[in-house]
């Protein structure tokens, strides 16, 4: 399928943006135009070791000559960010997928408030650029995380939306703190809210927005962390690998991808939230308990299965692996 297309890109630049933060400028090795993307998009990046991870595009969606991503060197990394920080440099080649967007700006948008913290600013930068180019009124309120003061500050200062941006610092000395309740109070009914940052930071703001009258459809959220409920009471079921005939019993507290990887059956994953489709598999037999946010009704009818979150209603699933 088209979503599965990978293309090589060269690392044109690797830039240290702040403590534990780098950006990568990715270009076509032959100087060709890259596939177009819309503001708020992300790409799958295949990195050393075969891992696949998603990164938001933070440059202008009008640009076809490059993709720019920001990568935080997460201390709790499962290997992706550490590999990019430590092993990938200018001149190296990576594989990327086609841009995809789950943080899209609605066509009906007439005005907007953008809120971001830390690395969460990456998709917001592209959205701010788009709104500015369309002459749509907006404000960008950006909180510098404590460990990354100045992150993307140069990019913001050089942008077309610098005048629309207000910066905040997590520092009592500077005492420039975001006040979401005041900011979201008495906003027009057509105001759109875009927010991205750590869950512990953005979830209270989302709740405040709802209390201030923002309808669900006017609140647009991008999440970087997994929010999957504990599966300890989930159904236990078997999966059979069609090519080998091997059968594995999936326990109630593990996902299909995680358990099979422990047994040496590697299924490519990326978001592990049921959103990207990297771990899509055809089920040849059995009834699926779909829990993803990716598959279309037609794909579900065709028997596709997102293995990082979905499970079985029947006692057995036969996987086309």
How confident overall, as mean pLDDT? 89
CATH topology of the largest domain: Rossmann fold
Report the β-strand fraction as a percent range: 25-35%
Shape: globular
Terminal CA distance reads 17 Å
Tell me what the structure shows:
There is one protein chain. With 321 residues, the chain is of the alpha/beta class. It has three domains: 96 residues, Translation factors (Elongation Factor Tu (Ef-tu), domain 3, Beta Barrel); 112 residues, Rossmann fold (3-Layer(aba) Sandwich), CATH 3.40.50; 83 residues, Ubiquitin-like (UB roll) (Roll). It has seven helices and 18 strands. The strands form four sheets. The protein has a six-stranded antiparallel beta sheet, with helices on one face. Strands 9-8-7-10-11 form a five-stranded parallel beta sheet, sandwiched between helices. The longest helix is centred in the middle third of the chain and has 13 residues. The chain is globular, with a radius of gyration of 21 Å. It starts with 5 loop residues before the first strand and ends with a strand. About 2% of the residues have low confidence.
């Amino acid at each position: 399928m088209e979503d599965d297309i990978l293309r090589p890109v060269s690392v044109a630049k690797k830039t240290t943006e702040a403590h534990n933060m780098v950006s990568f400028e990715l270009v076509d090795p032959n100087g060709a135009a890259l596939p177009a993307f819309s503001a708020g998009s992300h790409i799958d990046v295949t990195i050393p070791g075969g891992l696949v991870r998603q990164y938001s595009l933070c440059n202008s969606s009008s640009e076809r000559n490059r993709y720019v991503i920001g990568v935080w060197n997460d201390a709790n990394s499962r290997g992706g960010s550490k590999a990019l920080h430590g092993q990938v440099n200018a001149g190296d080649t990576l594989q990327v997928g086609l841009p995809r967007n789950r943080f899209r700006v609605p066509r009906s948008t007439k005005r907007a408030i953008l809120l971001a913290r830390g690395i969460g600013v990456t998709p917001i930068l592209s959205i701010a650029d788009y709104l500015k180019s369309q002459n749509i009124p907006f404000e960008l309120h950006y909180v510098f995380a404590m460990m990354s003061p100045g992150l993307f500050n140069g990019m913001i200062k050089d942008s077309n939306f610098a005048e629309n941006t207000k910066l905040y610092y997590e520092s009592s000395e500077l005492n420039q703190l975001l006040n979401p309740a005041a900011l979201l109070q008495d906003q027009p009914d057509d105001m759109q809210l875009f927010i991205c940052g750590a869950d512990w930071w953005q979830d209270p703001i989302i709740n405040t927005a709802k209390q201030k009258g923002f309808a669900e459809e006017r609140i647009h959220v991008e999440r970087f962390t997994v929010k999957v409920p504990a599966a300890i009471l989930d159904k236990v079921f078997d999966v059979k690998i069609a090519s080998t005939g091997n059968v594995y019993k999936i326990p109630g507290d593990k996902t299909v991808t995680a358990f099979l990887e422990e047994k040496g059956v590697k299924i490519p994953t990326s978001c592990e939230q049921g959103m990207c489709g990297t771990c899509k598999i055809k089920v040849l037999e059995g009834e699926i308990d779909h829990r993803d946010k990716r598959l279309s009704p037609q794909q579900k009818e065709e028997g596709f299965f997102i293995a990082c979150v979905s499970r079985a209603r029947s006692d057995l699933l036969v996987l086309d692996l």
